[in-house]
Amino acid sequence: MSRTSRHLTPTGTIQATRDRRRVAFATVAGTTIEWYDYFTYAACAGLVFGALFFEPAGEGISTILAFGSVGISFLFRPLGAFLAGHFGDKIGRKPILVITLLLMGVATALIGVLPTYAMAGVWAPILLILLRILQGISAGGEWGGAVLMAVEHAPAKRRGFFGSMPQIGVPIGLLLSSGMLQVMNWLFPGDAFLEWGWRIPFLFSIVLIALGYWIRRGVEESPVFTEIAERKEQTSAPVAKLFARFTPLVLLAALVFAGNNAIGYMTTGGYIQNYGTAELGLERGPVLAAVTWSGVSWLVFTLLAGIISDYIGRRTTYIIGYVLLGIAAALTFPVVNIGEVWALTVALLVLTVGLGLTYGPQAAWFTELFPSSVRFSGVSISYAIGSIVGGAFSPMIAAWILEATGDALNIGYYLVGMAVIALVATLLLRNRNGINLRPTQEERQRTGIYIWQKPLDETRR
């Protein structure tokens, strides 16, 4: 028997505290770097890409096209999720994490050296979009591997906490991105930012990717997948099996995530940054500072939500989160429209409470929802579809709503609607705290998923 198998507990997790901490650190570091790259692009789409890459389309349309380039990457997340899910369920979680990290880093660094439209004409936006597509493929495969490594190593009663580790990497990535852009805005004020300042955060990705690769390559494979491999039970076509047996679950899980993603991408997708500077006339530096503070708050509530979900359940945490998020979404633009930086900051801070509560428990809940043989495919593809339905084009939709109606309050109605849809999907799923994750329990993992099914027998977990 292998060393990893000897450490497996009856619930399919690993006992060694040092191993769990190493995995937690690796998932935080890797996810932070991946999303630093992703958010840097989204922020620059709102701040500079319209003028530098899409200017001939005209002022309003160039902004919509810039946000459209943000959304295009989401269309390729399912491809990344399908590839990562297929190979992650066949060859393991760890190799996929290393590959996605390198792919994201190379694409991001190349964006930093792209010529603008003034230099290369139509080839500039084409190359920008192609590199954004590579970012989308990488992001589609990254999340599933990171959360499974974190949750499948965790003690059953602390999966929410350990699962929140890759989740907090996202707001940390936002913090790092907005902080770097603030520094560049200070070092390269005015036109200098448009000429050179925006490029440096993309080039800095090279340093981060080297660090992330060094951290991730030293992490042990998930103990659950190790047992699957030892038993030679890898599924030959995990994606086909997933959709043959669990299509309703994939769709519901995607909708659970869609509400959080649609509302969250008002900030992480660059829309608020553009709205504050272009529509309200606020200075770029204070707006980026407001986003940075919202990243801190989002981090805190994401971590807190993961911990809380270990006590009150993932589903209950989500229900509370979506109620708060819907209220906050309705109030965001009325508060932002006060036209002061403090009002923008308050609106974003309030929004992050619900965002954290509907994001922190996601890793643990998605992992507990899907059976072991299709788990990587299930969590990755659900996440990718939810990203398309929710966040893919929410900044673009917001820009279109404002262009069409002239009133940002209408954007709030759209966001509240997304929160309601996600809440309904949440109510249709059962809580799964503590379910046995081992491959020997696959049959039981298929039961008690939906509210119309009988709940799991608590005494047999």
Automatic annotation (TrEMBL):
The keyword Cell membrane applies. The chain crosses the membrane at residues 35-54, 60-84, 96-120, 126-149, 161-184, 196-215, 242-267, 287-307, 319-336, 342-360, 381-402, 408-429. GO terms for molecular function: transmembrane transporter activity. It is a multi-pass membrane protein. Residues 23-434 form the Major facilitator superfamily (MFS) profile domain. It is found in: Cell membrane. It comes from the Bacteria. One of its GO terms (cellular component) is plasma membrane. The keyword Transport applies. It holds the Pfam family Sugar_tr. Gene3D superfamilies: MFS general substrate transporter like domains (1.20.1250.20). PROSITE patterns: MFS (PS50850), SUGAR_TRANSPORT_1 (PS00216). Keywords: Cell membrane, Membrane, Transmembrane, Transmembrane helix, Transport. This is MFS transporter. It comes from Microbacterium faecale. The gene is shiA.
